[in-house]
Amino acid sequence: MKKFSTVLILLLCLMNMGFIPEAYGQAATLPYTQDFSTTNDLTLLNGTQPNKWFHGNVTGNPGNSLYISNDNGVTNGYNVNSASVVQAYRDITIPAGSTISTFSFDWKGVGENGWDYLRVWLVPATFTPTPGTQITAGTGRTQVGQFNLQTTWQTFVSPTLNISAYAGSTMRLVFEWRNDGILGAQPAIAIDNINLFIPTCLVPMGQTTSAITATSATLSWTAPTPAPANGYQIYYNTTGVPPTSATVGTPVTGTSTTLNPLTPNTTYYWWVRAVCSPTDSSMWMSGPNFTTTQIPATIPYTQNFNTTNDLGFTSGTQPNKWYFGNVTGNPGNSIYISNDNGVTNSYNVNSASVVHAYRDISVPTGTTLAYLLFDWKGFGESTFDYLRVWMVPSSFVPVAGTQITAGGGRIQIGGNFNQQTTWQNYLNTAVNLSTFAGSTMRLVFEWRNDGIIGTQPAIAVDNINLFIPSCFVPTAMGVTTVTSTTATINWTAPTPAPANGYQVFFNTTGVPPTGATAGTPVAGTSTTLTPLTPNTTYYWWVRAMCSPTNPSIWVAGPSFTTTQIPATIPYYQPFTTGPNDFGFTSGTQTNKWFMGAATGNTGNSIYISNDAGATNSYTITSASTVHAYRDIAVPAGTTIAKLSFDWKAVGESSFDYLRVWLVPATYMPTAGTQITAGTGRVQLGTNYNQQATWLGYLNSTLNLSSFAGTTMRLVFEWRNDGSGGTQPPVAIDNVKLVICKTTTPVVTLTNITHNSVTLTWPQDSGEASYTIRYRPIGSPTWQTIAVPAQPYPTPTNTYTLTQLLSATQYEVEVAAICNTTTGGYSHNQFLTRCDPTPPNVTISNITTTTALVTWTPLAASSTYTMRYRIVGTTAWTTVNLPAPPANNYPLTGLNVYTTYEVQIANKCDGETTLNPWSSPKVFTTERTCEIPPPGLTITTITPTSAVVVWDPFPGATYILRYRKVGIPSWTTINTPTNTVTLTGLLELTKYEMQVANICSGTPGNFTPLYFFTTPTVIYCQMSAQSSAQEYISKVTVKPTGKPTMENPSGASNYTDYTGAPATFIELIQGSTGNEITIEKTSTNEEGIAVWIDFDRSGTFDPNERILANGPNTNTPVTGTFSVPANAFVSTADYKYVLMRVAMQRGGIPVNCTSFPYGEVEDYTVRISKVPVPNSLNQDDIMIYPNPVSSVLHVKNISSKAAYKIYNSAGQLISDGFILNNQINVSKLISGVYVIYIEDVEGTVQKKFIKE
């Protein structure tokens, strides 16, 4: 039973993972249907391939499906860089005698044309496919089809699939996915709704469509054999949604029918099925969809797509199709290429497509010339992905997947349209319609992409206009004589010339005028536009006026940029604020110069962009040459200048780069054309690229002599070749051109101190550097300092001279240095201040009332002031000190044994403000013998002793007195030294003490009271570092005459049981035969030692060790011990002695020494005297405990008993009635007290001790 369960679980796991089919791989029978809604019964052969078959709900038509995934079924995506071949198959039993079957399934997947696809095979069940190896044609192996390049669900139907080779055996139906590991498009393949059955009613075949008009079409098919007894049914619609078996079609008796009436320019879908009997029909078979012809439009023809679309589309099964919608437009709607059913204007660059949008237009008889306009945008790929426009006869029907070629009346208009991400306007004023006059012409917009790379977006078309002009446009528009504020424009008159002249319209936005826009009248064929703004791009249009009501269309002339008002030197452009003063020659180049915040060093900059300045990126597949330039006036006589700018660009080696030029202002760069060396043109450096971060360019010896007295044009030229490259393209910031001068600076002196001075002067705008020289007046030698230039436009330069002599007259001079030439020196004089540094102050000759103050060093050209006061007071006494060289001053009239502080400051001659004070110097006058000794300190306090130390007084002896706090009498000690050790003190007792000097036999004043409290006994610390492997598991003490104590315990390095009442040990003073037992948990040899501090000294003496054993593995360990007759007797709860039990691996523990392995435990031991017969009358009034800490209990009294408590001095401390046989004495200070208790039977007196 257990073996069966294991096998079952393994099979279920394998089924769930898809390695074997459910139902253990039995062959299915016909009819076979699998919609994957609940389970999968196909065997999945995935092996170790990166892209595998999975069953799940990631995609389905609807619900679940079987699909390829590279992430364990999370998505229907595949790794395009890893080759894979995987199979999914189902074994199906084919009945004997079978010939044909109907086979269908749904599928979708893109992959890669010719490389990444699904194949479907019929093979014998004896043939097992191998993951990683494609199935090839061979005996009994039949390929059904190859499938890819579809993002939406498709239905494959084979109504008469030949299965005769498998009749009477088992056939294996195999779905095989293959991808080559190089490129590819998502998603991978998915399959759903598999159906295989043997039909009882055969389908019609050979469906065709003919005689298509604007409102009708004829449908035809071939009858099956045998022909259906009940004829046929047809079904059609415009949605493409197929009928189901329950759908009732229109009966047709023959093999053709005409659909009528239909809607013009509309795509129809149709299906036909055979009806063998009222209850037996074939499956529906789709015929080729068709589009009714258009009702030809008339000229003039206009389509702005704002509301509807009247163009027909030939998209077929191409992955990239024409759609009408609002994804893009100029403005509003448009027609555009899309690979996602019109959701976006994007195309699948890896799938080749050729699709058409067309409109039939009736051309009047006699027509010759017409105008065609339309707006378009789209990028695509150079000569591979583009739009073409054709005029063809209406008898020519474009075919999806096939490009139109010239010939047979087919005429191409314009060239290939692509490489533009923004809307462009196409105008053709010479469209020859003569070959179509009196007939219908088909205007076709053809999109083609080759299926290998490309750039988004695909093409979009808007605002189509075709008309026969009645007023012809001017031609040959040109621009001449452009200045900073004017430009002359001209054109050639049409034939015939317009009777009412022309109108001109211009702006700086590029937005074209409409037919309703009124322009400026011009009589001739040229005019001057004025006033214009310098360095500004203008757009202009002209139209002919044949009459006031009959103008031509507006025709755009070439845009132009007004010249710049030359900048002057120094010139600096950081692009951070204000307008950009550079001109750009971008033209129609894809990659253009822009100013903006996409990058900068820091802030804004000018940079190359392919998205109107949104980013600093370029289209590497579109060649561009564009320029940014600035005109700069170079003064006459100029030779050397300094040019600097910041730049960054990666680009591509010797193909995509920046060049920098100096050219005459008469030379205008042209977009699309690189500057070459020539007269007056100077290239600075070489090619700038391969630099991803900002880098500074500096030429500090730029020779401008050839441009002196003229206007020079500084040009930044970007060029990329249209193949390869790395982002980002070039960006420029912080352009600066300066010419230095040697003008003598005007110097200002500030912040003059005793050793420094700050010099400030206007910085030369040409970034000259400077030299400073200075010296004390009268000195023969100058000291010199080189000062670098401050970058323009910093207005000033500054330098601080340091390490000067105080109170000294100096002279200082500054000169500019330009190109190694030193200009004239300035001249200034100044006097440094005296040294304000506070002096060092010392105090000497201190007596009880005087002291001598000394200060050094003395600063020249200054006087000194002193102030002093008693420390802690606020008021100072100020003294003007003697003039140098005097440097000391006696203080008199001071207080005895008083602490003073003294400060001294100097004041420079001629000034009124003191310099900083010195740090306070503190001293104390001497004391007299009568003054209490200072420095009283109590040290080395033990439970029974304390050491007292104080400051000595010359020639004196001392008297010390101390007592317990609350006791009236003193204990007095006379001593010749200033150190005394007090002994015989009581533990945990508070004491007070005082000391006085004795001079000539007479005591002086005592110090204030000093307090200290003696501590309790403290024992050394001892512990093991680890008790994981050995520990004391139980301690048992059996005292003589007292209760047994047992304490079982677990492992711990150290445990303090002194506060646990259950572990307290009671012993009797002088007892013998006391027994102790130690049980241990260990596999090692352990040593045991036990001590009891019998004398309560705080140390474990050698004679206080009561047990030593081992090291060994014995357990338990037992010994006996005696209690000394003089052992400490516990008279209070806190006055106990300590027992220490220690166990150590490999040795007997040494007291107060820790060890690596074992355990230490401490216990409370209370020792009492040998009990004696009770001599007290138990009926007498009794008090307890005694000593007492908080509550005194009174026994054998009535409820009327009263009490009085007196201290040792006989003073009444407390009185009252005794309630509940208790008196609270917690607030009494420690000491001996007498209590009188008065009751009905008389009065008794008792003595007690308050702890």
UniProtKB/TrEMBL annotation:
SMART domains: FN3 (SM00060). InterPro entries: ECM_Regulatory_Proteins (IPR050991), FN3_dom (IPR003961), FN3_sf (IPR036116), GEVED (IPR045474), Ig-like_fold (IPR013783), Secre_tail (IPR026444). Residues 203-295, 473-565, 742-836, 837-928, 932-1017 form the Fibronectin type-III domain. It comes from the Bacteria. The keyword DNA-binding does not apply. Gene3D superfamilies: Immunoglobulins. Keywords: Repeat, Signal. Residues 1-23 form the signal peptide. CDD domains: FN3 (cd00063). Transmembrane segments: none annotated. PANTHER family: FIBRONECTIN TYPE-III DOMAIN-CONTAINING PROTEIN, TENASCIN. This is Secreted protein (Por secretion system target). It comes from Chryseobacterium daecheongense. The lineage of its organism: Bacteria, Pseudomonadati, Bacteroidota, Flavobacteriia, Flavobacteriales.
